[in-house]
Structures are given as C-alpha cells and as structure tokens.
Design brief:
The protein is of the alpha/beta class. The chain has one domain. Helix content is 33%, strand content 17%. The strands form four sheets. Strands 5, 6, 7 and 9 form a four-stranded mixed beta sheet that branches. A two-stranded parallel sheet has the order 1-2. It has seven helices and ten strands.
Length: 208
Amino acid sequence: MVVPQGSEPWLVRAGLPQIGRIEFCRDYKDDYLGQQATKLHADTFTEADFVCHVDSDCIFVRPTSPQDLILDEKPRVLMRPVETLGRERPWLPPTEKFLGWPVSFDFMRHPPYTFPRWLYARVREHATTEHGIDLETYVSVQPPRGFSEFNVLGAFAWAHCRDRFVWTKCDEEPPPDALCRWYWSWGGLDEGTRIEIEETLGTHGPST
C-alpha cells in the first residue's frame, strides 16, 4: 500500500495490523493528481514484474490469483471503443494531450488494472521527450481532473507494444467476470451501499 507521507501520523494512531507493507510517497497540493503521478512511479516501490492497481474503493468479490490477471506472461487489459461511449468523456482530451496522438479506446473499464513494470519507465520517458519535463511535474500542473493515468498506460501500450498484452473488448459495466466491485469513495456511504459492502465482506448480521 502506498500513502502520502502526511498520513503517517494517522496510521500510527490507527494501530492497523501488520498485514502488508506500507510505502510512503510525497504529499501533493492536489492529491487527486498526486496519486496518479504516484501510480506512474509504481515500479519504484516494488521489484515485482507486474503491478496490480487496486484503489481503496474496490472490494474483491471472489478469490483472485495472478492467473486471473496475466495470461501467458501478458497482462490482460479491458478496452472499449470510444465511439460506443456517451458524450461524457472528460478523460479523453487530457490523454490525447499527453500522448500526442488520437486515442480510440477507453482502457479504464473496470479495476483492477495490471501492467508490467517496464511500461512505467517508458511512459515517464515519453513525458520528457514529448513535453520537456518530468512526468511528476507534468501531472502536477494539470487542472483538476486533468489526467487519466490508466488510460495513458493502456493507450501507450496499445500504440507501442500491443503484442505484449492480452486485449479484451468490454462493453458491459461491470464485466461478467469482474473480480471486484467498484465504488466511488467520494460519493459517501448510504445505507444501501453499506449493507452491500457488509454482505460482500461477510460481516452483515442476520435479519431481525
């Protein structure tokens, strides 16, 4: 798990069980953009060959193994043609602006998102060659919601190393074989959502 350095005192007070490794990234003025920059440096936080991104608003609904995410040493990426989407595509102009070419697919269909470690350095190198600044600086100076890290990763891979991935067309949300349920952490927690999460986790008590 990677969290901003400023969260360390809170984590100490929370007394969380030692069930995993916690890494700290720097604090950003806009943490929504900052967490995207952090994700694009994922290879600097681990030595793993593949990185599986799971946000805090995702809950796995069935046992999951690397074989669900990687086929024949190639990560599986869900995609949907842009022309089949509605008019609301706020991620598209920022993605095309960063990459410098038209993007034909939405690669942020449903988490988790899995990418090989070598891809992150190539995307960071693109920021330098295309825009003349490092990727962290580029992301940090964008307007609010002005970047889409997983669409950047997917579109870059589709353009430059297509044969090293397994591409799966996905027109349904959630996909029929979804590994997790995807909530919106900024949307609050109403009673129906709370009960659904508790039932998924097996913590909902018996009906009275």
